[in-house]
Amino acid sequence: MDQVNLKKLAKELNLAVSTVSRALRDSHEISPKTKERVRELAEKLGFQPNPHASSLRQNRSKTIAVIIPEIENNFFSQVINGIESVTPDKGYHVLIYLSHEDYNKERDILQLLRNGRVDGVMISVSNTTTNMDHIEAWRQNGFPLVIFDRTCEDVDVPNIMTNDAEMAFKATEHLVKRGCKRIAFLGMAGNLSISNRRKAGYLAALEKYRIAAPPKVVELTAKDYINRDLLKQIFQEQPRPDGIFAAIEKFAVNTYEVCKELNLHIPKDVKVISFSNLQAAALFDPALSTIIQPAYDIGREAANILFKIIEKKMLMPYEKKMILPSQLIERASTAITS
Amino acid sequence: MDQVNLKKLAKELNLAVSTVSRALRDSHEISPKTKERVRELAEKLGFQPNPHASSLRQNRSKTIAVIIPEIENNFFSQVINGIESVTPDKGYHVLIYLSHEDYNKERDILQLLRNGRVDGVMISVSNTTTNMDHIEAWRQNGFPLVIFDRTCEDVDVPNIMTNDAEMAFKATEHLVKRGCKRIAFLGMAGNLSISNRRKAGYLAALEKYRIAAPPKVVELTAKDYINRDLLKQIFQEQPRPDGIFAAIEKFAVNTYEVCKELNLHIPKDVKVISFSNLQAAALFDPALSTIIQPAYDIGREAANILFKIIEKKMLMPYEKKMILPSQLIERASTAITS
DNA sequence: TTGAAAGCGCTAACAC
DNA sequence: GTGTTAGCGCTTTCAA
Predict the structure, then answer these.
(1) Chain D nucleotides near the protein (CB, 7 A)
(2) pLDDT single digits (tens) B209-226
(3) What structural domains does chain A harbor?
(4) Are the beta carbons of A30 and A23 closer than 8 angstroms?
């Protein structure tokens, strides 16, 4: 199968290649008649311009990359959906890369893309990323880049995230008001700014409400998600927590599993609230109280901002650090029991 | 920031561009010494070859496209994960496109890609796709293409799917053996082969077990997922179903919601089983019996087969129609109640 | 073992 | 309003 190209169209129409090119791009210097003829034949032959040739020539790929730690996660799926809500209209294509929570992979992917394959990158960093040099290198090269959700404050790149600290405060406060005296925080190990923000909100709430029990910050890794021994241990200590604030959906799921195993009743023995974008949280036994992040909006806004950067438009101050609020939904897992 | 290119390397090393190119591609006709020198400088300057130039020249993009109906769906996320498990090692990049269950979008995306942007396509068709002309056109052009999950039998393209009919039979049989007398099938409207296979399995089981009540096939659309009136109606008819086999996860979730609303108890009043890849199904109230599809494996195998086609290797007969078995997990939603 | 040169398909600067 | 031409950065003959 031979591709139709400009040359073929030009020959068929007895025109110069450049004329055909201009006609198809609706240049004002081409006569309506010619445009019509060109478009007709292009349509008939199903002509599609070769993207590599134009990318090479124009030094612009019409492609962006999205780098995320994992994809089997409602939050990131929804983000991609949000991104995809703007890309087709812009004539852009979306490449997906997974870092699998591995700093080295993340750095290599970013390195791999430093050659014009994409016009810009959207990234949510892995939880093993402590060093922002790879991001900084991109920024210094003037490559368009935005960070979302798992951001890093100490680098001068647009951030799109949610009000983590505030919602963590509210979640903890919610547990306090439901009578919890010993509230544990389940976060992700690593130096993620997102974990730190959520932890800070948790600690602030404990302090405000003058909770007697010392804060209990538990930082779990991907391994602890599979092997739940560490989590189990927490519930076997005395006194055991009567409230769990999970900063990560997975750990809420784990908490449910462990509680079932240990015959601890939610919400009677322990109340649970979690950051989660799981649609089905309402169907859990018991229904899980959640803080829902505006994942779709985060994706959409992050993409819009990236396009502004690509198009060299000035960013509004609020676009350099955009905070989209989450929503707390109370359900049975934090209900008061008599 | 100026990109480093072959020309710059060549100049710096006092070599011809072609020599540098060959050295970097480890050609046997370049002396070890030269290779070493070239590699050293390339490393030092962080040289990355311009992908558009090589794609243009070699007529090969090192990129594949994945076209799926939606991404906020565990099954498809897992498929992408499976695909990504093979692409980086092959040096390939992955473009994601969403058809949003819209045939026209699907056709346009496929049309858009007929220009060398990608070396191959993996597709799971939308539920509004009844016409396979767009797929057929690709095949006839000799473009590498594989279809997964939502396949179409009537087109000569490699298919990767699960044993839908068999598992639908087993799911229905499972309900029968748990005492259900009036089993309804909830499927997706449209002419999807996958729905048809699952429906066929359902009907076969009813026939085998000589169920007196007539089959009840309910075909729902995306609208019915949002507005659950149609589903509610089914439970308000007399006699109402005492067993639900949902061919789509979403409709199982809807069933739970509607049952809660109507005060119908699962599994006492109605038992429910569903195709679903939701990790959290075990935490539902009650835990949902599921048929889990090997989504990750489907993605990985489909990608492997696509690469064989791209590399013009012969396919084994079983690779032209690969069926990866699903797994039925019994949980409380189909338990016998006394 | 290395170099020179053509050319992939497109766009854009410069004629006319 | 249309044509001619150069060149994007790379790979690949062909020549030396």
Answers:
(1) 1-5, 7-13
(2) 998 888 899 988 877 777
(3) 6-49 (no CATH), 60-161+295-323 (3.40.50.2300), 164-293+327-334 (3.40.50.2300)
(4) yes
